[in-house]
Amino acid sequence: MAPLHNPLVAEYGFPSTIPPLPQSDELDPVVRATVHSRRPDGVDLSATTQNGSAVTIRLTSVAPGVVRVELDPASMDRIDRPHVRLAHPPADTPTVSLEPAAPGHARLVTEFISVDVDLDPFRIAFNDVDGRTLLAQDPRPTDVTGRLAAPTFGVSRADGKVVASHDTFVCEPDEHFYGFGEKFTNFDKRGQWLEMWNYDAHGVNSERAYKNVPFFLSSRNYGVFVDSVTPIRFDMAATNFATFSVVVPDTALDYYVIAGANPMEVIRRYSDLVGKPILPPKWAFGLWVSSGFTADSAEATVARARELREHEVPSSVLHLDCYWQKFGRWSDLDWDSDAYPDPERTLAEIKSLGFRVCLWINPYIGIESPRFRLAAERGWFLRKPDGGVHVLQLWGGSHPEVAILDLTHPDAVAWFQSRLRELLRMGADVFKTDFGEGIPFDAIANDRSTGEQLYSRGNRSGGVAGRSYG
Hints:
Layout: E1 26-39, E2 42-49, E3 54-63, E4 66-72, E5 97-99, E6 105-109, E7 114-119, E8 122-127, E9 133-136, E10 154-158, E11 161-170, E12 177-181, E13 192-195, E14 212-218, E15 222-226, E16 233-236, E17 243-248, E18 253-259, H1 263-274, E19 288-290, H2 298-310, E20 317-320, H3 343-352, E21 356-361, E22 364-366, H4 370-377, E23 391-392, E24 402-404, H5 410-426, E25 430-433, H6 451-456, H7 461-467
Parallel strand pairs: 19-20, 20-21, 21-25
Antiparallel strand pairs: 1-2, 1-10, 2-3, 3-4, 4-18, 5-6, 6-7, 7-8, 8-9, 10-11, 11-17, 12-14, 13-16, 14-15, 15-18, 16-17, 22-24, 23-24
Helix pairs in contact: 2-3
C-alpha cells in the first residue's frame, strides 16, 4: 500500500494509529457445507474449512431485499472479545422458501433477492428479482503459482487461534463502488484500500478520516454493510483487479447484502437497517459561519455577526471555535474572561441579530486549566496502566498536553453535563463535539475498559453524554 504521508517528511505521531492486521500463519477457507436446519426466515449450514474445522454459516432474510450472512467458528479456539452490533433488524422478517435445487446446491428465494449456494465446493451468489447475479463470492482467487491471492470466505489463525475472518467477491470489469463514510479520496472507491479507523486527519487530503462507515454501494444496485466496530479493511480491487475483499480482525464475520431497484432504494433499506438520524431543527440547515482556528474575542465575534447581516449573507448559526476558551486549557468549558468578559451579553447581542450560537468543545482538558487538578484528584481522567493520569500531546504540538475525560465515570459525566447546561443557560444553542478519536490503547477507564475497547465502540461516549444534558 502507498504510505499515508510523504516518507521524507516526519509524520505527526497520532496516539491511536490503526492496529496492524494479525500476522496469520494459516488461511483456512470454507470448502464445503450441508444444510443443517431450515428456518422460516432462512437456513443454517454446517460447514467445513480446508483444514477440517467445523463452522456455522447462517443465511437470514432480515428485511425486504436484505440478506444477512454470518460466519461463526463457534467450535474453534479463538480470541474472545465482545461483539458490538450496529444493525437493528426488524422483528418481523420476510418468509423465505428453500427451493429444490440440483444435488450439491441450495437456493433461498425472497420477494426481492435470492441466494444460490453451491455446497461443494462452497460458494454463495446473490441475485436480483430478475435472476441477474448481483454479487458472488470468489472461492479460489489464485495467482500464477496457484496460491490464493485474496482472503476468501473463512478465517485466519495465528498460533492456532482465529484472529480474523474475511470474504472475497468477484469484481465485475465495469463495476464501481461508493461510500465508506467520510473519505477524501476519489469518489469512486474502485482500486482503493480503505481502513475503517477514525483519525484526526489533519486535513482533507488522504484516506484518513474522522467518520468511517463500513457500508458501500455498488453500481450494480446492491450494497454491503459489514456489522463490526473493529478496524475493518476493504480491498476494493486494489491488489487484485478481479476481486474485492473485506477483512475483519475478529472471530466472527457478519455482513448484510442489500438489493434494490436503484441506488436510492438500496440506501433506504440500509438506513432502515441501521437507523435514521434525528431530524434537526429547520435553522440547522442554514449556513453556519465559523471563526475558524484563529484567536477570537467578543468584539470580533459581534463584528462578524453584524457584517454578515449588513451584507445580507443568508446565515443561521455563528460558530465560536476553540478560542472562546483560554488557550492551554481546552476544553475545560470555561470562557476566556479576557477575550469574553461578559459572555452572556455577547451571546444575547449575537442572538438579537437572528443567529443561533454554536460552541466548540472536546472531551479533553489541558494541563494548564485549574480544572485539570480537580478532575485528576477525583479520578475523572483515563489512566495509564500504572494508575497515573494519561497525559498526551493530541494537538500535533499546537496546544499544550491534555488529559482525556473518562466518560465511563458517572461523576465525570454528571460534571460534563452540568457544564453544558450552564452554557445553554447562558445562551448557547448547540455544541460542536470535536475530537475523541485520540484514545491510547493502553488507557484504562473507570469501568475497566481498555483504550482499544473504548476506541472500537466508535467514540460515541462524548456524544451520548452531550445528548443527555437535559
